[in-house]
Design a protein that fits this description.
This protein has helices at residues 3-18, 25-40, 42-48, 55-66, 72-83, 91-107, 114-126, 129-136, 142-153, 159-170, 177-191, 207-221, 252-263; strands at 194-201, 224-231, 239-243, 246-249. The chain is globular. It has three domains: 3-107; 114-190; 193-263. The chain is of the alpha+beta class. The chain is built from 13 helices and four strands. Belongs to the ATPase delta chain family. InterPro entries: ATPase_OSCP/d_CS (IPR020781), ATPase_OSCP/dsu (IPR000711). Keywords: ATP synthesis, Cell membrane, CF(1), Hydrogen ion transport, Ion transport, Membrane, Transport.
């Protein structure tokens, strides 16, 4: 990601934060629609992301085209995105999609963990080769893939999670579904001021163990911790924790492997 895009994303996030409760589930879905529209129209995307055009001109353009067609919150985010300089024209599509995920994350009640639901979807996809193929196929009609998602998640996931997964399969832009789900999880966690940690253990951890682990990781990373829990009996004992690119591996299986290597 180029420095211009990083700065543009910061401006988009700031504008989204200023919308307060207006940046709700509906606004998030509108931002998804805008991202798909710009992604499918080279002419519109080039005009909105043109680095040589004056920001005021691009703001006027999006307001002329979209005022009255999307909510004020979605239009404010799009207007800010249009006024930024992006490292690549296509980065504005990624920025609007990210803003949509963040808006939807903010719309969820405290009792709902979108991150947990997205993780469950990812596990379901990873465990079913036919389902993964159906959702990632480049030949399948996007509407058909959206239909698969809606049938799969009907009554099993929140409206927020369904909206995010629909977007990921409708507009993959070269990404695999598992990669997209991990990105969405990380974005949701970041919007909640948390760091996403995947904890793999041989047996389910107790609440006390999770609390101790959460405290240790929070101290290390300076943020709240959102957990993904994976059970893998092959670890035998101990834990493997992944936070971003960091891996903390204290599993018995790894220690035994290290001993074997030393003996060899």
């Amino acid at each position: 990601m180029g420095s211009a895009t990083r700065e543009a994303l910061t401006a988009v996030r700031d504008t989204l934060a200023q919308q307060g409760g207006a940046a709700d589930l509906g606004a998030g879905e509108e931002l998804f629609s805008l991202a798909r529209l710009l992604g499918s129209s080279v002419q519109l995307r080039s005009a909105v992301a043109d680095p040589t055009a004056e920001p005021a001109e691009k703001k006027a353009l999006v307001e002329r085209v979209f005022a009255g067609k999307v909510s004020g919150a979605a239009l404010a985010v799009l207007s800010t995105a249009a006024q930024q300089r992006w490292s690549e024209p296509g980065d504005i599509v990624d920025g609007l999609e990210e803003a949509g995920v963040r808006a939807i994350a903010d719309s969820a009640p405290e009792s709902l963990s979108i991150s947990d639901e997205l993780f469950a979807v990812g596990r379901a996809v990873a465990g079913d080769a036919q389902l993964e193929l159906a959702l990632r196929s480049k030949l399948a009609d996007p509407a058909a893939k959206v239909g698969v998602v809606e049938r799969l998640l009907q009554t099993k996931a929140s409206a927020q999670t369904v909206a995010i997964v629909r977007q990921l399969v409708a507009d993959p832009r070269g990404r695999g579904i598992r990669e997209s789900l991990r990105w969405a999880q990380q974005t949701v966690a970041d919007q909640k001021q948390a760091v996403l940690a995947t904890v793999t253990s041989a047996q389910p951890l107790t609440a006390a163990q999770l609390d101790r682990l959460r405290a240790a990781l929070s101290k290390r990373y300076g943020k709240a911790i959102a957990f993904n829990s994976v059970i893998d009996p092959e670890l035998i004992g101990g834990l493997r924790v992944r936070v971003g690119d960091d891996v903390i591996d204290s599993s018995v299986a790894t220690r035994l492997s290290d001993v074997r290597l030393q003996l060899a």
